[in-house]
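Re: Re: ligand-bound prediction request (bumping)

Still looking for help on this. To restate: I need the protein modeled with iron/sulfur cluster bound, output as structure tokens. Inputs repeated here so nobody has to scroll up.
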Amino acid sequence: AESERSKRIAAARDELGDDVLVLGHNYQRREIVEHADFIGDSYALSQRAAESDADYVVFCGVTFMAESADIITDDDQTVLLPSMEASCPMAGMAEALQVDAAWAEITAAAPDETIIPVTYMNSYADLKAFCADQGGLVCTSSNAHRAFEWAFERGDKVLFLPDKHLGENTAHRLGMADDTAVWDPWDPEGKDADEVADADIVLWEGYCQVHERFRKDHVTQVRDEHPDANVVVHPECRRGVVEAADVVGSTSTITDTVADADAGETWAIGTEIHLANHLARWHPAVEVIPLCGDACMDCNAMRQIDPNYLTWVLDGLREGQERNVIEVAPGEKERAAVALDRMLEI
Ligand code: 13P
Ligand code: SF4
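Reply:
Sorry for the wait, this slipped through. Here it is.
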């Protein structure tokens, strides 16, 4: 059945030709990425979409990525997401309405200061638009430190959303680890105006439930079992994990690190399991081991992109039907684009 489905996807791709671009995020399963024109990290894929002339972009990833692709592609390009259930829980932890309410409290806690909101790419378009309106910008896991510097050139304080771990890791990188406070919108005790007033970096209480599962013990254990192992992790991991690793970076950095490794080296991969599996397959001369075995580091949102849904969306296009279109509302799209453009300036 697997090869039948694969043949069907390949036949649909053949028939549709250059009209359709298929993008696969690094965390997608093998049966998806083998049909993708490009495999990459969240922002690089959107850029690929913008560079292409394809009428349709089928984004095998999660909703916020498809939205970003819609924001930066031309108006006559249509972005499709094979499953509408593929939504990153972390992006959902900072809803624009909720942030808007928190913003009033946070700005009231520091009335004499200029606060610049910085949102991670892993957020919805309405939050990106909000950040643009408040003088802020978007960042990726590769340029968060530069985004913070940009913000501190223009304001006194940064509010970083939604990932507190990426925020904390970035604060460390900038030597500002002692200047942070966490704003927890779900906890009545978690909104301390005095702490906000004192801190230079306010971190929203959001996290990735995949990367948060990595623990420092996993790094210790892998080093015990493989004394020559190098460890590379994503900056959505907890501070202790990042501190114990050799390299930290986006899914592109992780991919490049293993691609550049010498034959015989051992690399333990602290990110979503599918990327670790791809790297093991793509680089057989390198010993690639998932950090924490292959127990639990599977992103449920990414997993929603079942190859049957990819087939369904491609079959729809063959029949002239646009299924699962992701379209950011006009107005919001232009505002979110401002926050993305500011990122490109840094
Ligand atoms: P990248 O932008 O590094 O690809 O990460 C996306 C993501 O969802 C990480 O969990
Ligand atoms: Fe979201 Fe984490 Fe999944 Fe990435 S791995 S899409 S941040 S839940």
